[in-house]
Amino acid sequence: MTAEIMNIGQRIDRSYGELSPQEQRAADFILDHLSDLAVYSGTELAQRSGVSKATVSRLFRRLGFENAQEVREHARSLRSSGVPVGGIAPGASADLSAHLVREVENLRRCLDALGPERLEQTTSLLVRSRTVTVVGLRNSYALALHLREQLAQSRAGVHLAPQPGQTLAEEFAERDARDAVVLFGFRRRPAGFGALVAGVAARGVPVILIGDASARRYAEFATVWLECPIDSVSALDSYASAMSLVNVLASNALAARTRESRTRIAAINGLLDDLGELE
Question: What is the pTM of this model?
Answer without folding.
Answer: 0.64
